[in-house]
């Protein structure tokens, strides 16, 4: 037997109004296009309860106890990688009547435990964690203006076809393999473009295309021709240079060069904790640049490089200021996570 549709509060109110106006129950049923019994029981319930609201229902009894709900929650918290079927199997090993995986998932959702794809993050040794914590504590009190004095630098690789980001399309069930609903992919990304870039004080600096393998001599040239000129142009004298701990950056050639510039009062180099790309706001800038380039649908390496240059020039100062304004929150998050 088909499930009956429940009358809405508005329909019940209309029934009551029409009845008070003198309409018969059959006339009301015909006028509102509902059954005679629906009108009859609606008026009867209103007379008994004095309300148009549905009565409270006891609902279907829960098939798990409070202790079992706690067991599901605690088991999931102890091992975050346990799946719904695994938790259900573990619980059912102690029960006479098994519960379904759907029930276990509902209990997890009720406890606020949602299934999500795990974020990827570089592995941190204890020494690296300590360095990150020290860095966060030393920089937590810097103001937004202080962070604008930092020249954020990094390099990134962009692929011609595809992206590590997920692509969403709207399609019908039968349009799964339709060309406009597919993301083209080729081996090795169909070629890529490696770039070095920087930004500071709410403005982007140079975007330099790195061809071939970048060695210490190549990075030394980038410091001379791009990093230091950009820092002086965007920020001014004694700007703060941020760079990660790549072996090229810490080579004697580059280290001695930067020490001479520090002695001359041109810049100061920020001490950067190892394995900490998540602390660098330029990583978010690379993601934004990738989103902008994907809209242009590059078809070759040269086309991709032209798109990158064009998108780089379209980065708004408001977005860059938003990145640096979030640095105090980043420091506090590191401290809170210890």
UniProtKB/TrEMBL annotation:
Residue spans crossing the bilayer: none
Record InterPro entries: Homeodomain-like_sf, RNaseH_sf, Tc1-like_DDE_dom, Transpos_IS630-like, Transposase_5, Transposase_Tc1-like, WH-like_DNA-bd_sf
GO biological processes: DNA integration; DNA transposition
Stretches for region Disordered: 47-67
Annotated ranges, domain Tc1-like transposase DDE: 150-298
GO molecular function: DNA binding
Ranges in coiled-coil conformation: none
Highest rank taxon of the organism: Eukaryota
Full protein name: Paired domain-containing protein
Natural source organism: Sparus aurata
Domain Transposase Tc1-like: 71-141
Alphabetized NCBIfam families for the sequence: transpos_IS630 (NF033545)
Pfam family, one: DDE_3
Record SUPFAM superfamilies: Homeodomain-like
